[in-house]
């Protein structure tokens, strides 16, 4: 039995021996900054698996990573949005993954990191602006989709709609020097 402590209730053991007498160590509380850092590391790890170098930026400028694709002579900036576990917006609803980002985002790319499944999507920021279903008055755009879904429901995309932006696909296009906007997208 795993005890549910803290905000998220999942995570690595604390290592402090707080087993409640049943021999099971309670998970640590995972804070927002840890979720963000884990997402950045997941994106870096997946880029590195494809031979694409990247570096984390420690400034709070809205740019989290800089990547350098072999064969190019330019660095590209990435803003990472991380989710520990996608959740439903309503009781009994399907889990949804979303990217909320400022319309003024200076990064060239947006990365979405689903930590529960180790999935990463990489979308050019200008394209994400076009795809976003919500343009809020406060300058925030929202791009979201139902996970484990192949059919669109309402305005939300199906996860299958975002397959062209999964890291393996985007990395292959980047390394080949090809466009990463899927056919039929504007």
Q: Mind sketching the topology for me?
A:
Blueprint: H1 32-49, E1 53-56, E2 65-68, E3 75-83, E4 87-88, E5 95-102, E6 109-114, E7 119-124, H2 125-131, E8 134-135, E9 140-146, E10 157-158, H3 167-176
Parallel strand pairs: 3-6, 9-10
Antiparallel strand pairs: 1-2, 2-3, 4-5, 5-9, 6-7, 8-9
Quick recap of the structure?
With 186 residues, the chain is an alpha+beta fold. The chain has helices at 32-49, 125-131, 167-176; strands at 53-56, 65-68, 75-83, 87-88, 95-102, 109-114, 119-124, 134-135, 140-146, 157-158.
**How big a fraction of the residues is strand?**
25-35%
Helix/strand/pairing class, anyone? alpha+beta
CATH architecture level-2 label: 3-Layer(aba) Sandwich
Low-confidence stretches: 1-19, 182-186
User: Which fold name fills CATH's third level, the topology?
Assistant: Trna Endonuclease, Chain: A, domain 1
From the spread of the alpha carbons, the general shape counts as: globular
Largest sheet: 5 strands, mixed
| Domains, number | 1
Q: Strand order of the main beta sheet, please?
A: 1-2-3-6-7
Secondary-structure element order, as H and E?
Answer: HEEEEEEEHEEEH
Report the top-level CATH class: Alpha Beta
Number of strands: 10
Q: Which whole number gives the mean pLDDT?
A: 85
| Rg (CA only) | 18 Å
Q: CA-to-CA gap between the ends? A: 49 Å
- The tally of helices reads 3
Binned, the helix content reads 10-25%
């Amino acid at each position: 039995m795993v005890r549910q402590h803290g905000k998220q209730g999942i995570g690595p053991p604390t290592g402090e021996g707080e087993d409640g007498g049943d021999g099971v160590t309670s998970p640590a509380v995972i804070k927002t900054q840890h979720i963000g850092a884990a997402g950045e590391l997941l994106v870096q790890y997946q880029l590195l698996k494809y031979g694409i170098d990247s570096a984390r930026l420690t400034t709070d400028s809205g740019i989290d990573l800089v990547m350098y694709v072999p064969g190019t002579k330019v660095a590209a900036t990435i803003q990472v949005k991380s989710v520990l576990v996608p959740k439903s917006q309503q009781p009994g609803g399907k889990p949804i993954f979303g990217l909320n980002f400022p319309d003024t985002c200076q990064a060239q790319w947006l990365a979405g990191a689903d930590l529960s499944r180790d999935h990463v999507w990489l979308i050019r920021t200008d394209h994400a602006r076009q795809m976003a279903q919500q343009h809020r008055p406060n300058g925030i755009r929202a791009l979201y989709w139902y996970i484990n879904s192949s059919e669109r429901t309402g305005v939300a995309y199906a996860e299958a709609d975002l397959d062209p932006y999964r890291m393996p696909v985007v990395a292959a296009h980047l390394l080949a020097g090809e466009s990463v906007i899927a056919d039929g997208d504007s």
